[in-house]
Amino acid sequence: MARDPGNKQRPGPLDPLDQPRKGHRSDETQRQLYPPGADRLASRREILKRGGLFALAAGGFAAAWPLLRDREGKQALEQEEVVRLPEGGFAVPIQSGVPDFVVVHGTDPMRMLQAGLDALGGIGRFVQPGDKVVVKPNVAFDRSPSLGATTSPEVLAATVRLLQGEGASLVRVIDNPINSPEGCFHRSGIKKAAEDAGAEVILPSPVHFRMLAVEGADLIARWPMFYRPFEGVNRVVGVSPLKDHNLCSASMTMKNWYGLLGGRRNQFHQKIHHIVSELAMMMRPTFVVLDAMRAMMSNGPTGGSLSDVKRMDTLVVATDQLAADAFGYEELLKRDPAKLPYLALAQQRGVGNRNWREVPHLEITV
Amino acid sequence: MSEKPGEPAVAEAPRDNPKRGSRPYRRSLSLRITDVRILAQAFFFILFVYLATVTWFSRLGGYPVSLFLEVDPLVALATALSTGTVYRNLIWSLWLIIPTLLLGRWFCNWMCPYGTLHQFVGWMFAKITGKDRLEANRYRPLFRTKYVLLLWFLLMALFGSLQIGLLDPICLMYRSYTTAFAPTYDVAITRLREAMPLLPEWTLASPGIKHERIFSSAVAVGWMMLFLVGMNLIIPRFFCRTLCPLGALLGVFSRFALWRIDRDTQKCTDCDLCLMNCEGASDPHLLLRSSECFACMNCIEDCPEDALSFRFMPPAESGIAHVDTSRRRLVFGALAAAFTAPLARMAGASDDRTFSPKVIRPPGSPAEKEFLERCIKCEQCIRVCPTNVLQPATFESGIEGFWTPIMNMRSGYCELNCTLCGQVCPTGAILPISIEEKLGLPPFQDKGPVKVGTAFVNKSRCLPWSMETPCVVCEEVCPTSPKAIGSYEEEVIRWDGQKVLLRKPFVRPELCIGCGICEHECPVSDDRAIYVTAVGETRSKGRSLLLQSSAEADEQEDREV
User: Fold this and answer.
1) Nearest Cα residue in chain A from B210
2) Using one digit for the tens of pLDDT, what is the confidence trace for A149-172?
3) DSSP state of B178
């Protein structure tokens, strides 16, 4: 079939509606190309090209649709991709002949912590050079340090410095606060303390959460966790203040793990004691520090007044978080541990020993 | 222009003007006035985005984050009309008024970030060419609209209803950034960070928050932005020429400008090429409309005859100084304002008898009528709010309060130790109170804390009250000391015979400050079992709840002892 040679060189017609466009031909050209009686059919090449495109498109759909098929609509249901914390948690092997918790009185958190860890077998028992550590303070509220609602910055800084002094290659400080994270980390002094000591602070953001599977837990068997910072980490240290709590009476080292979870945490209060025991089961830390430098004695867990706070100048450094909490509850808060259900529940879960008097321990003053 | 090198030669042989074949000329390294203008536009646009981005808790660091609003003469004038005062930094608008009285509407095409956005979108997406383009830049009677709008806005302000923020370009720009652009951008970055965890957090517009931000008005604000920007594809600079009330105000000032574009009728050949890139549609080919000209200088660059120049006091005959609006239209605008202002008030949304329980204003706000005289809907407070509690209202506070900030305790709560909203507010619709003043700490103990509302327990939805299930999250998170939420302890025999110890929450209204964290954390998440309403707010006596505030009661007790 004859091609139209004049398509390119043709000058533009005056009528703007008849502007030359690629592939379009004026009626005049068409009349010349297809005289009366001529077969009005596109060129063979055109037919092959368009036919090929059709086959490609139809074949593509025919191949893709069965691959994407979901007969029952399963895609609409939640797909759970879960993560797990390492078997045995982040605890270090038991060492005989050393206490499970040490109560240290003093005023210099660095020396107190050092002494406490020495009594537990030396910091070298807990961290080796190259280890990566998550440190979990309690930064739940937007409060200044003096109000005792959050971990003391000095205690946190001392923890970070000791870990790094022992050669930890990375120390991350994380918490998922109740109030807005930026404000909490700023006002509590934790961000500055952590960063000055050389730790990395990671604030929670939606990208950090993963669905955590907790073996043996009933209530938090599946719960969104602030998980990303734990990737590549092999040691976890909890540093939590000793506080009164309106519902579960006290917030100490076990309750501190609350800040590792996300999701609908506000449902926890419906079975708060079970939750605390499950939190302790979820996280088996390398060691914990119960910070009673400034203890919140009333109006907890938020406090807000200096009259709620009592200066105790005490730290409890422990590998048994349950024993530490039981001690703190009885000896520091001066309350009756028989009336704190989560201690018994945690013991049933095998977290530790709530009869702290039976547990090897030490009380020192530095 | 005197800075052009070969001016005499050009005058002698205009046909050889190198600008005619514009391409080779563009390669030259010399900076033309329009290049300087583009640099200025880029600078101010980047400055705007920077300031909007640092309007954030962790970034504030003393920047004048509301600078663009504080130099905006429309904000200063309208609030001066509504309040009789020029608040804090609004005096800075002199930096814009005085140069405008000299040079005309230069702001529109040299500094205004919204104008730059419009120009950029037109340049990028609206490829109008040839004669069509020339026609698109002719003046149209439609462009008078902005003067009628301006008059309407200013008279509304005089009646105490500040509505300039609906269309003021700087307010629009800040609002669009806060409610539409920044959250959308963060959605994209968050997706990216899921794939690339190493992407640092500071790449987010709003870092350090637990949840992606929620804005009930995002669609309206975002689509309005898109519509106005998209109109450039049909009429170039549609917003700036037709609607912009700030442009109209600067246009009124421009009639007094000492410098303006002048066309040398001896040189002009009436080719109309000056219209090709005319941003303001100011008729540089005829009698220049001073009030429409953006001083973009494109016509000077485009003129093949060098007939156009930006000059000091050209002859009055070569331009039209007055604004192209008949007195009758202005009278109509005035009547419209006189009619609409009382109508809006009549709806009762700002009245102490009929106000909505949802209109919970940020701490530091004056009483509702004074608030409405000041709020320009720029949403800087909403941008800086770390908890996302502040939301642009829709109709909760009446048509007048459209897009003014109210608190939604489901999307956030008022952080106890935070007064950032008042720090960034450019107009004093939220006054910059200190933490001490907000919390009623010394030296403000006699005034007591600022309350924004009061919490109420809905006993029929509360887990311990109505469902025999322990909870009291509200009591736990209550931040006041002593707590404004207490609980009765009660042991009940549950339906299945089990003994349950329940603690049933109640509110102590004299202690409650309405911060709403109880509502925010309540596990009955759709229709909260504890919720805050505006009653009891301290900013207006007419909305109080108790006979005495706790501070007053204390004082009386002290006296009686």
Assistant:
1) A205
2) 999 999 999 999 999 999 999 999
3) I
Q: Nearest C-alpha of chain A: how many angstroms from B274?
A: 25
Q: What amino acid is encoded at A138 in this protein?
A: N
Model confidence at A23, pLDDT cuts 50, 70, 90, reads: low
* Structural contact between residues A166 and A124, judged by C-beta atoms closer than 8 angstroms: yes
What Rg do the C-alpha atoms of chain A give, in angstroms?
A: 34
Nearest to B470, CA basis, from B493, B502, B442, B492: B502
Pairing of strands A309-318, A101-105: antiparallel
CA distance B90 to B112: 17
pLDDT of residue A238: 97
Mean pLDDT, residues A279-288 taken together: 95
Would an 8 Å CB–CB cutoff place B190 in contact with chain A?
A: yes
Q: Is the dihedral of CA B230, B231, B235, B239 positive or negative?
A: negative
CB B409: neighbour CB atoms within 10 A? 28
B159/A128 Cα distance (integer angstroms): 73
Give the residue on B whose Cα is nearest the Cα of A144. Answer: B417
The full 3-state SS of B418-445, as one line of letters, equals CCHHHHHCCCCCCCCCCHHHHHCCCCCC
pLDDT of residue B18 exceeding 80: no
State pLDDT tens for residues B439-465: 999 999 888 999 999 999 999 999 999
Helix (H, G, I), strand (E, B) or coil at B355: coil
Contacts for B555 with CB less than 8 Å, ≥ 6 apart: B446
Q: Which sequence spans correspond to the domains of chain B?
A: 37-171+234-320
Chain A: nearest CA to B370, how far in angstroms?
30
Q: Does B503 touch chain A (CB under 8 A)?
A: yes
Our separate counts of H helices and E strands in chain A read 9, 12
pLDDT tens-digit series, residues A295-326? 999 998 999 899 999 999 999 999 999 999 99
As a whole number of angstroms, the distance between CA B3 and CA A13 comes to: 45
The pLDDT score that the predictor gives to residue B488 is 93
List the 471-490 stretch of B: residues with Cβ below 8 A of A: 471-473, 475-483, 487
Q: How many angstroms separate the CA atoms of B90 and B70, rounded?
A: 5
CA-based nearest distance A116→chain B, Å: 32
d(CA A199, CA A190): 11
The span from the first CA to the last CA of chain B, in angstroms, equals 83
- Do B463 and B523 form a contact (C-beta atoms < 8 A)? yes
pLDDT digits (tens, 9 = 90+) for B74-99: 999 999 999 999 999 999 999 999 99
Residue of B nearest to A251 (CA): B476
CA angle, residues A21, A26, A28, in degrees to nearest 5: 155
* Average of per-residue pLDDT values in chain A: 90
In the block, residue with structure tokens 């660095």 = A110
Question: Given A144, A207, A271, which is nearest B194 (Cβ)?
Answer: A207
Is B58 touching A (CB cutoff 8 A)?
yes
Query: Count of CB contacts below 8 A, A vs B?
Result: 112
Q: Give the per-residue pLDDT at A84.
A: 94
Top CATH class of A101-365 equals: alpha beta
B33 SS3 class: helix
